[in-house]
Amino acid sequence: MTASNIATSGGHDGHGVDLNANYLKAASGWRSWVFTLDHKRIGMMYLAAVSLAFLAGGVFALLVRLELMSMGRTIMGPEMYNKMFTLHGLIMVFLFIIPAIPGSLANFILPMQLGAKDVAFPKLNLLSFWVYCVGAIFALISIVYGAVDTGWTFYTPYSLTNPQAQTAVISLVLGAFILGFSSILTGLNFIVTIHTLRAPGLTWKRLPLFVWATYATSIIQVLATPVLAITLLLLVFERIFGLGIFDPRLGGDPVLFQHFFWFYSHPAVYIMIVPGMGVISEIIATFSRRAIFGYFAVAMSSLALALLGFLVWAHHMFVAGMSEFATMLFSALTFLVAIPSGVKVFNWTATLYKGSISLAPPMLYALAFLFLFTIGGLTGLFLGTLSVDIHLHDTYFVVAHFHYVMMGGTVMGFFGGVLYWWPKMLGKLYNVKWASISAGLIFVGFNVTFLSQFIMGSRGMPRRYYDYLPQFELLHRVSTVGSWIIGLGVMITVGVLIVSLFKGKAAPPNPWGSAALEWQTESPPIAQNFAETPIITRGPYDYHLATKAELYDGFPTQRGG
Amino acid sequence: MTQEPTFQLPPAMSTFAARYDETYYFIYWLSVLLFVGIIGAAAYFVWKYRRRPGVDAEPTGHNAILEASWTIAPIIILAVMFHVGFRGYLDMAIAPGNALEVRVRAWQWGWDFEYPNGAHSNDLKVPVNKPVKLIMSSNDVIHSLFVPAFRIKKDVVPGMYTTVWFEATSTGETDLFCAEYCGKDHSAMMRKVFIVTDDEFQKFLEESSGPPSGMSTEDWGKKIYGEKCKSCHSLDGSKVIGPTFKHVWGEMVTMTNGEIVKVDENYVRESILDPLAKVVAGYPPVMPTFKGTLGDKEIDALIKFIQTVK
């Protein structure tokens, strides 16, 4: 695989970057970061930014749970509570979960998996990061102006008429609008990169599944995000000029907004989950030392999810007063989504069969993903079944369902991916024991928090409620305690990574003994990734074809094969 | 009959609930089966094929039949689920023609229920074993009416009417929620549904009806006249479909059967509740009954109003 004979241009790139030096040291000074065109540095800046967003969104989640600890007022009034859950949702969706894996992990790893020196449009890549930051600033401005209490969905006419300061809603909506551009730029960049910058010998059938997943995600980002932009602009115009598109007092249709909104936001669910699935495929292959079973089906199922994701938006609106015919159609289409999702789960499970399985921290997250995503997927069947959805719609059952998919899926994928590629990205090892303890706490805490919400929801507890009836208090308490366990687990992971950053031992090039291409270079990689352009002679998961040198197994506590 | 709440579901108090719970638990047990199968297999493989010195993973092979079967088999299960769900949904979508219609108005942050006789209430009161159709609208933002024990929910949208129906199967009380986020006091839109016998319901209608506050009985009668009687009975002596109300009070009137009757309280009351018992000569017997629509108080108010039409 690494047999290489095409010499790359060595030396410097004309901007003072030493292409053959460790990318973290290839240039110095703040300008070398702010204006960097290196996908790895941009990836690291994204990683820092989305991690901060995750921690901020997490603090809001803990506050929401704390308020719900007891009936009536616990620590805040209803207006503050409504702002808290709105901020939690908005930050997690727009500032964390959409950009998290594409912005940080894919930015760093995808060009390396392709054997490329960088993405196709490095300047666009940098622009996408700074556009993200500008969007985030608009979101912060809205908090300064008293924050928004519309929920992350901005449903009209409430988002048009609520007494909250106009400025806050408009600023936040513009922030989401701007963040959309960042998402489109990233997606476009990856599509072109995957098409044009694959190393010699890296055929489509040898593409890592993370690349396939990112490819599918990028297509959705490019096609769906403009619809969000249109919707959000219409919302701003409606608020400022009173156009009468969504506001019934002006002859508009508030349900139209929901169609527009979900026409983006349902495909966006796949923008959120498909990259996580890609990460999981990589981790399961590496820690089973085995190619993913049904590779082609797993790759195609990502594309199938991308396509089907566009056709099911109205299943968010089964009780909104749509026609019976439309409702039937969207229920039928929704069930189709279960098939590619099922294919992935079955294939991951089959990959474990006759593997050589190591339970290193990234693998713990991958198995947690398998467990939690399966629950998330199966509970989706309840919601796709029309008659059953009617009772469960807008209850905690839905809240639990999408947290099992989004947090149990994407966040587990993100954590697993960060721990998997951390030694590559930063050249440092971390404390495996504490990382494993943390993974266990997050897993247990997650189930305590959200299994109780399934039961609350099916018993009839509506979502977005500041106050509730006595029969729900016990389950709310359990859920709140669960959120503390998650919080503790996350703080331990943060601690483990900070200690690793400053005191971690130097990582060898391939600490996990992976056969994949990104591990066949220095840790951390040199500025141009590979000293010579690699020539690909086998797939990324062909452990039986990899040489002993390629599978060097260097993570001290993981040796033994 | 009330079915007691189960671990996962609230009490079952409508005709939908039994079927709903059946479908819910069908999907639940199917999911449990799939979950145990998948996670059980994964856990077993993780233990059985844990990394051991000197043991390599076996290269991944192909198994087209296995792959095809776990792609196709779910389609069949999903088709069954879709079918069951859609049939249940259709039952819930189409209200029977004889349903009692209750008008629901939602606003930030409250509910108003208006019954056919014009009575209003803040909590919903319905008769048992009788289909009830709610015709809903919102004064401001989107709300959603949710009664877990009935397994019903429907958004209440400004600028349009939405409807939902149910038939309660046992007397008692249960909770009603707003399920669509509507601002500050969203969670304060919790109300009760009282399910009572038909007799109690009629009694409730009569007791809770009455002139709107600040309106005299006469004016209320005039209002009811405007809503219910005006299209057939004039006030100016002109002949429409039925006799005019002008100067009618206290008159001796000839019926189609030749009987002569004095227009008094009893005659007017009888004409409203059983219009075809005595029909005035020269008029067709076409008046519908207002039994169940107009309560005693309304009838009294109408009588009071008719006395004043000179």
Q: State the CATH class of the largest domain in chain B.
A: Mainly Beta
CATH architecture of chain A: Up-down Bundle
Strand neighbour order, sheet with most strands of chain A: 1-2
Main beta-sheet annotation of chain A? 2 strands, antiparallel
Q: Give helix % range of chain B.
A: 25-40%
Query: Strands across the major sheet of chain B, in which order?
Result: 3-2-1-5-8
Measured by residues with Cβ under 8 Å of the partner chain's Cβ, the largest interface is: A-B, 92 and 85 residues
Report, as a whole number of angstroms, the end-to-end distance of chain A.
21 Å
Helix content of chain A: 55-70%
Main CATH class of chain A: Mainly Alpha
What does this structure look like?
The complex is a heterodimer of chains A (561) and B (310). Chain A is 64% helix and 1% strand. Chain A has 561 residues and is an all-alpha fold. Chain A has a single domain (38-556), classed as Cytochrome C Oxidase, Chain A (Up-down Bundle). The longest helix of chain A is centred in the first third of the chain and has 37 residues, at 78-114. The radius of gyration of chain A is 23 Å and the shape is globular. Chain A starts with 5 loop residues before the first strand and ends in a 28-residue tail after the last strand. Chain B is an alpha+beta fold and 310 residues long. Chain B has three domains: 17-93, Orthogonal Bundle (Helix Hairpins), CATH 1.10.287; 100-208, Cupredoxins -  blue copper proteins (Immunoglobulin-like, Sandwich), CATH 2.60.40.420; 217-308, Cytochrome c-like domain (Cytochrome Bc1 Complex, Chain D, domain 2, Orthogonal Bundle), CATH 1.10.760. Chain B has six helices and twelve strands. In chain B, strand 1 (100-107) and strand 2 form a beta hairpin. In chain B, helix 1 runs antiparallel to helix 2 and helix 4 (217-229) crosses helix 6 (296-308). The longest helix of chain B has 34 residues, at 15-48. The two termini of chain B are 54 Å apart. Chains A and B meet through helix 3, helix 8, helix 10, helix 11 and helix 12 of A and helix 1, helix 2, strand 7 and strand 9 of B.
